[in-house]
Each structure stands twice: as structure tokens, then as C-alpha cells.
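Incident log, support desk, overnight shift.

02:14 A customer reports that sequence design results differ from what the structure should imply. Their input is reproduced verbatim below. On-call engineer (initials T.W.) acknowledged and began investigating.
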């Protein structure tokens, strides 16, 4: 499969070594030979069945007695009691009430990596604003470690570990917004000097991004090296790092009674393990479903059989999975019946930085995220392109640097100020009659047909957050709207609606939401909304064409993000069936 895009001979699913043959950062071993657990079982005539404690597919829909279908139909009862507000102290009291031994068990579960392995030459810490608000950057790593029980969950007999998934989660200072940036594992990046298990440090050099996690060749991986690499690539200080391996991921999905996902086509054993060389049994059906255990792992690790078979499509599904999981946890809240099993499952296979090395630190951090609305939790992929000289990826410049600068400035990807030090001078509803009228028009226009109308929203001013405001208005009227970023000019005085040749009627209907908007035929087939200073003034957000005031608390000024970032963003409340693949084929 070495000819597929995004899959080098050294990094393919079929040859899972983390580094090229000619060495790597710090003398890391080259790719290791040997098949995975599925390949072994296939060779033994076991048909790709899995051992994950009974939650696997074991033959899929074609298995004996339809066991997979029976398991999918049997959903455990959920405790519907909700606890609306928690404090860290309250959660700890809950744990103590359940038995002090549980608290000590959770503490004993947690492993942390050596603080001495973190680079000393690091980006500066984010500065708190006048109210003490600071953003937090968390590096989330999904490890495919072959150690322990992981080999039975698709790992194989080889030692070592690789990073299947890496997301840099930026929690804005207001703790009401967050964005997760997926970093392609086969992007060629500079890997800095990293500490080996024997205490020596590597020389570093350019390599595949996931080579950093393999430095040293240990079963636990090298999360400090990945953290050092992310800081070098982004110029952003990583405050915390968390690593979850196969076994922990599987257990967590069981603890929450499954996660809702969606697939554009059915997946078979041959897609999970191309070495099988046959279609095999059904593993995951087409469409919406709930997955846990082995099935959840199959979903987030799946690459072949959908789209172009690259890591880009897999990252899209991982983002959809994370969105669905976050939405479920937000909806169900923290109750005694789901908190303890989840905490136990997570900590058993969790490796963290020294700053999160206790149950109370983890719980306190987790609870600090409870005010993030799912629409304000975004996922994007670092700007990338396929390389011409091989099947790997380059991060695109200056687009990637614009993204890093946007995070450092604590600006959301649609241009909102989320430093936590928001201006107080917003107009009251009585001072802004047009939004009320627009809201009335929105209610009148919100019929079912709007859902089929796609609208790309651009900010035609220098006022932060304006495109997001218009996107929310359109979504309230049931339009399929997405924030596309900054327009080519920031001097639009009047909101403008550009429409394709077949979209005039839809554009005229949409204009009811934006009194005074001008309609113009455009070259694209869809509808583009460019909000102007009139919309800003109507919403009490200022109308100056010369540019907004400097953002309080920002560490740097950010340029408008390119559409390569904004057009592909996923909100956690998006349809789980949308944007889950990349490219054609499969």
C-alpha cells in the first residue's frame, strides 16, 4: 500500500515502523517487521475476531447468530439524574464518599513522564490578563503501544509505540471556547534533541512527526519528545500532555456506554487489515451507530476502504469522534454512576506530564472545561499538502504560522476575542433594534427547506467575531451555514450576499435576515454572505472601518486565517455524518 497518498513505506498501516530505514532523530530503530494481531489471527484461520472483553465485532454482521447485531441492540440503561454544577472540591468529596480507597486507587493508576525530558529552551508561558485569565494548551496523544494488553486490541507482537493521533487542544482564556488542532502523523517536521531512556540526548533533525513519540523505542513511547516537537513546530508552550493507549481508549468508550459515530460506507475486515487480502466479514455498517471497545478503536484507526485511504480522512473521523464524545459527556453531565468508572478507565492507561499527576489535578482541570459550549468547541487540521518527492506531508506556510499566531493571540478561528477580558460596552437589546427585527425574520424564515441551502459566511470588517455572529443567526433560521473567515477586504460598509446562477431565490429569502443587504450575482455555485459594518452596528459591535482596537491580553497580533483552515473546521455540534472522509476512491 506504499503508493497511497499519505502512507509512506515506513509509515503505512501494513508496515507500522515509525521511522525510515536510514535512522531518525537520535538513532531511533528503523521500522520493525511483523504483522499485527489481525494478521496473526487471519493466518490462523480465526477470521479477524478480536479479544477485547466481548465488545468486538467477532465476525461482524456475518458472524454466527448475528451476535454483533444483538450487542448493538442491547443498550445498558442510563442514569438520567443530572448534576448541573460541580466544583473540584465537590467531586473529590464524592470520590471520598465512595471510599477513600478509590481516590488512592485513581492516584496509583496515573503514570507521569520525567520532567527532566522536557526541553529547557521553550516558548514563553501565556500571560494572564488583569482578571487572571490564561489560555491552556493541552497535547492529546493516542498511542498504539504494543505493550501490556494492547496487542490484543490491534497492536501486534512488536515492541515500541507510535502516536496514531495527536491533537493540540487550545482552551481559550475565557474557558468558553476551545479548538483542537490535528497534526498529521506523517508530516515532515523538525524534531529537536530529545532524552533517551538511557539518559542521553539525541541530535535531532527533520523526520516524520510521529517519529518523535518513538524516540528511544520503549513500549510507553516518548511523550516528552512529542511535546518538545510540538513546541518547536508551533512556537506555543504546551501546558499539559496526556497519552492514552489502546487499552485505556477501549475502556473509556465502554465506561460511557458507547459513542455515536457515522460512516459513509460499510467497513469490512479487509479494510481494517489489508494483509487479509479478502473482503472478510462486516465490521462496521454504513450510517449512524454507537461504538465502544474494539469497534471504537476500529473507527478511529480506520484508514483503508474510505476516501483516498490517507491519514487526512482518518483525522476527520477522529475529530468527529472527539466531538461526539464531548457532546455526550456535556449532555449527561457528571454523575456518581458515570464519573467513577470513567475516571478509573482513563487513569489505568493514562500517562501525563508532572503537572497532572494526581486525581485531584486531573479532575480540577476537567471541570474547568465545563462551560465550553459544543458550538464553540472546534476541530481543524494544521494546513498541509502532499509532498511531490514522496507520499508524506508538508505543513503549508505561511498558513500554519498564521494558525499558531491566532492561538497565541487567543483569537478564535472565526476572529472572536476569547482572551477572557471581554469588552463591557455591548449595546443592550433596546439600543439595537435591528437584531430584534432580524430575529423575527429568522423565525419566519426558519422552514425545513433552509437546511438544504449552504451559506459561507465571511467577515467584511475588522470587527472580531462578526462572521460567527452571522453564522449563529443563519443556523437559528435552519440554514446550513459555516464561518469561512475573513473576506478579501475589511471595508464592506454594507452586508453583501453573492449567489450562483441557480441560487437567486434562496439569496433573496436569506436577505430578509440582513435588512439593507445588497444582492450580487457571483461566480461560485453557492451563496456567500459577507457581513459589513451595518451588521456590526446593528449588533452593537462597532462599525469602524479603520480596524478594531488591540485585543486586551493578546500576546501577538494574528493575521486573518486562510480558508484552508476555516472552511474545513468542525464544530462539536455538527452532524456526525458530515465531513468524515477525504478524497475519492476506496
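02:41 Re-run completed on a clean worker. Output:
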Amino acid at each position: 500500500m506504499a503508493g497511497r497518498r499519505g502512507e509512506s513505506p515506513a509509515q503505512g498501516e501494513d508496515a507500522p515502523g515509525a521511522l525510515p530505514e536510514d535512522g531518525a532523530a537520535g538513532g531511533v530503530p528503523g521500522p520493525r517487521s511483523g504483522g499485527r494481531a489481525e494478521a496473526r489471527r487471519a493466518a490462523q484461520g480465526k477470521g479477524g475476531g478480536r479479544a477485547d472483553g466481548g465488545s468486538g465485532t467477532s465476525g461482524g454482521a456475518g458472524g454466527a447468530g448475528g451476535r454483533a447485531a444483538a450487542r448493538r441492540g442491547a443498550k445498558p440503561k442510563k442514569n438520567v439524574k443530572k448534576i448541573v454544577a460541580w466544583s473540584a472540591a465537590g467531586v473529590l468529596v464524592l470520590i471520598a464518599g465512595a471510599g477513600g480507597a478509590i481516590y488512592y486507587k485513581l492516584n496509583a493508576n496515573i503514570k507521569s513522564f520525567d520532567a527532566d525530558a522536557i526541553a529547557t529552551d521553550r516558548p514563553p508561558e501565556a500571560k494572564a490578563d488583569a482578571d487572571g485569565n490564561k489560555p491552556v494548551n493541552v497535547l492529546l496523544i493516542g498511542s498504539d503501544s504494543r505493550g501490556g494488553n494492547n496487542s490484543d486490541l490491534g497492536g501486534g507482537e512488536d515492541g515500541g509505540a507510535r502516536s496514531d493521533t495527536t491533537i493540540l487542544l487550545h482552551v481559550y482564556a475565557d474557558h468558553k471556547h476551545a479548538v483542537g488542532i490535528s497534526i498529521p502523523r506523517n508530516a515532515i517536521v523538525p524534531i529537536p534533541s530529545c532524552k533517551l531512556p538511557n539518559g542521553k540526548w539525541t541530535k535531532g533533525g527533520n523526520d516524520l512527526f510521529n517519529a518523535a513519540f518513538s524516540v528511544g523505542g520503549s513500549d510507553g513511547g516518548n511523550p516528552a519528545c512529542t511535546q518538545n516537537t510540538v513546541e518547536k513546530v508551533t512556537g506555543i508552550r504546551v501546558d499539559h500532555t496526556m497519552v492514552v493507549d489502546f487499552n485505556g481508549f477501549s475502556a473509556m468508550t465502554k465506561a460511557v456506554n458507547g459513542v455515536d459515530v457515522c460512516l459513509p460506507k460499510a467497513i469490512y475486515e479487509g479494510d481494517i487489515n489489508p494483509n487479509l487480502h479478502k473482503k472478510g466479514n462486516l465490521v462496521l455498517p454504513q450510517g449512524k451507530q454507537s461504538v465502544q471497545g474494539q469497534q471504537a478503536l476500529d473507527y478511529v484507526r480506520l484508514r483503508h476502504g474510505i476516501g483516498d485511504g490517507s491519514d487526512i480522512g482518518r483525522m476527520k473521523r477522529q475529530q468527529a469522534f472527539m466531538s461526539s464524545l464531548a457532546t455526550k459527556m456535556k449532555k449527561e453531565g457528571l454523575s456518581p454512576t458515570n464519573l467513577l468508572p470513567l475516571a478509573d478507565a482513563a487513569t489505568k492507561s493514562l500517562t501525563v506530564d508532572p503537572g497532572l499527576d494526581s486525581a485531584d489535578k486531573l479532575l480540577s482541570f476537567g471541570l474547568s472545561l465545563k462551560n465550553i459550549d459544543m458550538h464553540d468547541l472546534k476541530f481543524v487540521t494544521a494546513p498541509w499538502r502532499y509532498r511531490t518527492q514522496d507520499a508524506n506531508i508538508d505543513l503549508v506556510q505561511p498558513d500554519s504560522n498564521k494558525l499558531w499566531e491566532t492561538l497565541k493571540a487567543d483569537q478564535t478561528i472565526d476572529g472572536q476575542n476569547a482572551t477572557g477580558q471581554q469588552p463591557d460596552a455591548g449595546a443592550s437589546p433596546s439600543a439595537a433594534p435591528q437584531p430584534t427585527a432580524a430575529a423575527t425574520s429568522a423565525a419566519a424564515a426558519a422552514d425545513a427547506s433552509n437546511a438544504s441551502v449552504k451559506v459561507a459566511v465571511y467577515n467584511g470588517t475588522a470587527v472580531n467575531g462578526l462572521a460567527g455572529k452571522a453564522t449563529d443567526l443563519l443556523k437559528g433560521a435552519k440554514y446550513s451555514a459555516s464561518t469561512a473567515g475573513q473576506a478579501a477586504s475589511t471595508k464592506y460598509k454594507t452586508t453583501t450576499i453573492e449567489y450562483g446562477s441557480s441560487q437567486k431565490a434562496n439569496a433573496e429569502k436569506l436577505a430578509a435576515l440582513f435588512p439593507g443587504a445588497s444582492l450580487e450575482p457571483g461566480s461560485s455555485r453557492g451563496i456567500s454572505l459577507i457581513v459589513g459594518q451595518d451588521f456590526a452596528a446593528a449588533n452593537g459591535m462597532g462599525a469602524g472601518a479603520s480596524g478594531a482596537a488591540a485585543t486586551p491580553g493578546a500576546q501577538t497580533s494574528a493575521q486573518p486565517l486562510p480558508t484552508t483552515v476555516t472552511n474545513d473546521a468542525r464544530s462539536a455540534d455538527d452532524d456526525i455524518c458530515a465531513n468524515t472522509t477525504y478524497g475519492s476512491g476506496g
